[in-house]
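User: tokens in, sequence out, please.
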């Protein structure tokens, strides 16, 4: 059995779980502190520097929490920093994107029907776009410092919509959604690394030196933290969007992405207002439902159609190897007979509106391009076709898929 592809599958497995674990830790601490900050009440004893306090109960114990604005009179002897949750989330996420989308650029990143480009060109665009996002966002925040934060959020939303459109003009629909999530997550993590933590360190150094900290550093950090809070839910959807081809493979996928961001904002605003004891803004849920219905309608307005021609020149270098490898014709027949009922532009399986994960296996180009996935899902494992279906493969068919894939690697 070919060991290197198996190694990278397990590397992806490990990175994905690390990314999920660290993201949960970051989101949990972020949501908790925003809710805590919004729910603080004025200090009962009016201690110097204490701007708010709150009693909480959890796990059988009571907690009394106080917030100082700008800082306590002296430096605490034991201070806990919340930063590695953010850094680890971004580092594992970028590593995962490199393993899945950069190493598998021909399969997941590049779509010739959208734009033909080489692997390294696509990777360069990907990396440059992430850096571009932070530079533009940070510049706008600095230019609008002290001004109406609502207008700042509107401007940032316009930028996100523009990036959603731009990504769908360059990458595959699946990669476009993932990159929009990575674009936003990069801004969020960079907020922590370049703004929030450095500003907190300035305050700490002032305390150590016996100086009175400038309150502007706390205000700037709080602004960026609030931005992160409102961006969290859309980012989660984008990172999980590969499960929803009706979103990323739809004709108007960039509009769907834009509406998903609004849905995340309306839901967070409901809970933030509730934590602030500002009442229950039920209209936000009505608006969210309306946005979701719009997404549903847009998803059926058109699915990307693959060109019917099967020009071998359109195949990438790796796909060409698998298309010419020994056993391809046999595997092509196996796949189109047993897999295309579901993995088709218009699935024949009753009740299925779109191909699972947007994967189509109807043409020579599609089968050759998706060689690794076919080998993993139906050759090495019995994940596909689903167990118990009348399309189930016998052992000889799975062995044929393995022989063909290994021949393609050697070729």
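Assistant: Sequence out:
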């Amino acid at each position: 059995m070919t060991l290197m592809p198996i190694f990278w599958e397990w590397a992806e497995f490990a990175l994905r779980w690390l990314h999920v674990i660290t993201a949960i830790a970051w989101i949990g601490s972020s949501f908790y502190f925003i809710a805590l900050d919004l729910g603080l009440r004025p200090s009962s004893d009016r201690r110097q520097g204490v701007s708010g306090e709150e009693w909480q109960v959890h796990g059988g114990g009571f907690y009394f929490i106080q917030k100082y604005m700008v800082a306590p009179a002296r430096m605490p002897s034991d201070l806990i920093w919340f930063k590695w949750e953010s850094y680890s989330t971004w580092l594992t996420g970028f590593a995962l994107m490199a393993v899945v989308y950069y190493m598998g650029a021909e399969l997941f990143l590049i779509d010739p029907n959208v734009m033909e480009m080489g692997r390294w060109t696509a990777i360069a665009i990907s990396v440059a776009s992430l850096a571009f996002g932070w530079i533009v966002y940070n510049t706008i925040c600095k230019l609008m410092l002290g001004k109406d934060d609502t207008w700042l959020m509107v401007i940032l939303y316009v930028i996100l919509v523009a990036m959603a459109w731009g990504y769908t003009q360059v990458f595959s629909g699946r990669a476009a959604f993932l990159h929009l999530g990575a674009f936003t997550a990069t801004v969020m993590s960079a907020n922590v690394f370049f703004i929030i933590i450095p500003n907190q360190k300035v305050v700490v150094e002032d305390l150590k030196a016996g100086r009175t900290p400038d309150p502007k550093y706390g205000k700037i950090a709080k602004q960026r933290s609030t931005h992160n809070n409102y961006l969290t839910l859309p980012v989660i959807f984008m990172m999980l969007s590969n499960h929803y081809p009706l979103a990323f493979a739809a004709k108007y996928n960039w509009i769907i992405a834009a509406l998903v961001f609004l849905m995340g904002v309306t839901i967070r605003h409901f809970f933030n207002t509730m934590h602030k004891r500002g009442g229950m803004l039920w209209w936000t849920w009505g608006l969210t439902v309306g946005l979701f219905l719009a997404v549903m309608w847009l998803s059926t307005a058109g699915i990307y159609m693959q060109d019917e021609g099967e020009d071998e020149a359109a195949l990438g270098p790796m796909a060409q190897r698998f298309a010419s490898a020994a056993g391809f014709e046999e595997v092509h027949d196996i796949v189109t007979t047993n897999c295309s009922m579901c993995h088709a532009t218009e699935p024949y399986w009753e009740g299925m509106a779109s191909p699972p994960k947007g994967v189509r296996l109807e043409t020579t180009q599609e089968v050759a391009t998706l060689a690794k996935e076919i080998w993993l899902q139906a050759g090495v494992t019995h994940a596909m076709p689903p167990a118990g279906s009348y399309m189930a493969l016998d052992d000889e068919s799975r062995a044929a898929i393995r022989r063909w894939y290994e021949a393609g690697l050697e070729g």
